[in-house]
Design brief:
Radius of gyration: 26 Å
Distance between the termini: 84 Å
Structural class: alpha/beta
Largest sheet: 6 strands, parallel
Helix content: 40-55%
Number of domains: 3
Length: 428
């Protein structure tokens, strides 16, 4: 296949880049309608609707919602039955993810003013969180770790995982990460059950985790009743490289994201035209041996590009403009260029830092903002499972000092009951 080739020197480049990076989900209009109906049914009929939809969409043979729940013993058996190498890999990944996220924990704080007025912020964990993990033919234990570990580090009391037909690796990861309950249910019906609660499924405070178009739409529709992590778009990788990075490495890094789905995006920025030629040749030579080559080829043809820049400084400026999910800075002195980069979900410094390691075991979270939202959003973290409450204790002296300020401002706004409330503390 021939990958799109662009140059920042071309007069039409801005228009070409806008077309390349624009993503508009071509969603079937039936999806929101179907999801709305499913959510309404689960709200009205609870367990009965959840069971009906699980039988219909997940092909569940459960006779009751109680049978959808995965016994702890089964999950523990899945962990015990893993081969040594996958078991070690899960444990090592979990340890690294936990060590990173423990550094994100926010603490409560307060301070006292001279008149004994005390102000502060109280940080507390969410009480109950729902975790959606895609299931069926695919297995995503990394999704379990990346979502469950920061929740547990934050102190979430109960973590309820829903997944259609979870496999042994997913169950094993759930045990290791401290998931409290596992329900074998998926789709919009599982999201609705978590958002509104049923007789058997507790209502949660927040729902995290990826899913298909129905799951994403369900999360969008229940937001406000519960919190959600994000409505993520397709996977993205942007590589800034010089000739010192082997072309085959770059090609495989592009494949690593393109293989997710046909809408994924993979872009290379480099001032070296010959190196871009070498990357194009490596892509052509390596593609046929990829098990998911059809998906990769479709993704690269639709949303991939090799872009020649004037220099690395321009490449960094362009990357900031694109704001990718994953950004590899595969150049000789990456630290030199890091201060120029502000908009990316995760930045991988140097030639040895493959994005694939970040997906599984580097430590930072792989749940990242997509579709340019890295301009204002952050990776999933412990802070997403904590909430902050302001604490205000006004002393008698402070009631007069601050009350006069509050009353003046309230009068100016025409909110006279506010003003009177403040004055009553210090005026007869």
């Amino acid at each position: 296949m021939k990958l799109r080739r662009l140059s920042t020197r071309a007069p039409q480049f801005d228009a070409e880049l806008a077309a390349l990076t624009r993503y508009e989900a071509a969603q079937d209009p039936q999806v929101p309608r179907s999801v709305s109906e499913i959510i309404a049914a689960v709200r009205e009929r609870g367990d009965a609707a959840l069971l009906d939809y699980s039988r219909r969409f997940d092909r569940s043979a459960a006779g009751s919602v109680a049978e959808l729940e995965v016994p702890r013993s089964r999950a523990e058996q899945a962990l015990a039955g893993l081969a040594p190498e996958p078991a070690r890999a899960l444990r090592h990944a979990l340890e690294r993810i936990r060590a990173f996220h423990e550094r994100q924990v926010q603490k409560s704080w307060e301070y006292a003013e001279s008149d004994a007025t005390r102000l502060g912020q109280r940080v507390t964990p969410l009480a109950r969180v729902g975790l959606y993990v895609p299931g069926g033919k695919a297995a995503y234990p990394s999704t379990v770790l990346m979502n469950a570990v920061p929740a547990k580090v934050a102190g979430v009391r109960e973590l309820v995982m829903v997944s259609p037909n979870p496999g042994p690796m997913v169950l094993a990861a759930a045990v290791l990460a401290g998931v409290d309950r596992i329900v074998s249910a998926g789709g919009a019906q599982a999201i609705a059950a978590l958002a509104f609660g049923t007789s058997s499924i507790p209502r949660v405070d927040k729902i995290v985790g990826p899913g298909n178009a129905y799951v994403a739409e369900a999360k969008r529709q229940v937001f406000g009743q519960v919190g959600i992590d994000m409505v993520a778009g397709p996977s993205e990788i942007l590589v800034i490289c010089d000739a010192g990075t082997p072309a085959q490495w770059v090609a495989m890094d592009l494949f690593s994201q393109a293989e997710h789905d046909e809408s994924a995006q993979a872009i290379v920025l480099s001032p070296d035209a010959a190196h871009l030629d070498a990357i194009a040749s490596a892509i052509a030579g390596l593609l046929d041996e990829q098990p998911r080559r059809a998906i990769i080829a479709s993704s690269l043809a639709a949303r991939g590009a090799l872009i020649e820049t004037r220099d690395l400084a321009e490449a960094c400026a362009l990357a900031d403009r694109i704001a990718p999910e994953h950004l590899e800075l595969a150049v000789r002195e990456p630290q030199q260029w890091l201060p120029r980069l502000h908009n990316a979900g995760a930045i991988f410094l140097g030639r040895w830092s493959s994005e694939a390691i970040g997906d599984y075991c580097a430590g930072p979270n792989h749940v990242l903002p997509t579709a340019g939202t890295a301009r204002f959003s952050s990776p999933l973290g412990v802070y997403d499972f904590q909430k902050r409450t302001s604490v205000i204790e006004v002393s008698r002296a402070g009631a007069e000092r601050l009350g006069r300020i509050a009353a003046t401002l309230a009068d100016e706004e025409g909110l006279h009951a506010h003003a009177r409330s403040a004055r009553l503390r210090f005026e007869p």
